[in-house]
TrEMBL record:
<dbReference type="Pfam" id="PF06110">
    <property type="entry name" value="TXD17-like_Trx"/>
</dbReference>
<protein>
    <recommendedName>
        <fullName>Thioredoxin domain-containing protein 17</fullName>
    </recommendedName>
</protein>
<dbReference type="InterPro" id="IPR045108">
    <property type="entry name" value="TXNDC17-like"/>
</dbReference>
<comment type="similarity">
    <text>Belongs to the thioredoxin family.</text>
</comment>
<dbReference type="InterPro" id="IPR036249">
    <property type="entry name" value="Thioredoxin-like_sf"/>
</dbReference>
<dbReference type="GO" id="GO:0047134">
    <property type="term" value="F:protein-disulfide reductase [NAD(P)H] activity"/>
</dbReference>
<dbReference type="GO" id="GO:0005829">
    <property type="term" value="C:cytosol"/>
</dbReference>
<feature type="domain" description="Thioredoxin">
    <location>
        <begin position="7"/>
        <end position="120"/>
    </location>
</feature>
<dbReference type="InterPro" id="IPR010357">
    <property type="entry name" value="TXNDC17_dom"/>
</dbReference>
């Protein structure tokens, strides 16, 4: 089963990804708007993408890592935008870490694209 991790905020993400022991394993990073008191993200697109991503994640390599990153509020996204490793433009975004493959915005709502990201070998 895919190893799932949850991180909140830019500094915590940077520390986590630096310390993650993933040698020889695929790492997917999912950037989403932080959750409100009701447990749902403030990002409507993220809410629509969530069930698609959860379902398609079942097809990913069981040795892979899936890092769920709550970016914080809208202003805090800027920290992720400026980072050359994340280059976050929109939410939601899924990145195959250290690879060029990524899905952005409504692409994350399309099962066929999410499945391809999770199952395609480099």
């Amino acid at each position: 089963m895919v190893k799932k991790h949850h991180v909140e905020g830019y500094e915590n993400f940077c520390k986590f990804i630096k310390e993650l022991d993933s040698e020889g394993q695929v790492v997917y990073v999912y950037f989403c708007g932080s959750k409100l008191e009701n447990g749902e993200s403030w990002c409507d697109d993220c809410q629509r993408a969530k069930p698609v991503i959860q379902k398609e994640l079942e097809n990913a390599d069981p040795n892979a890592h899936f890092v769920y990153v709550e970016v914080g509020g809208k202003i805090l996204i800027a920290l992720f935008r400026k980072d050359p490793k994340t280059k976050l433009l929109v939410l939601p975004t899924i990145i195959k870490w250290k690879c060029p493959q990524r899905l952005e915005g409504d692409q994350c709502e399309k099962p066929e694209l999410v499945n391809l990201l999770f199952t395609e070998e480099d």
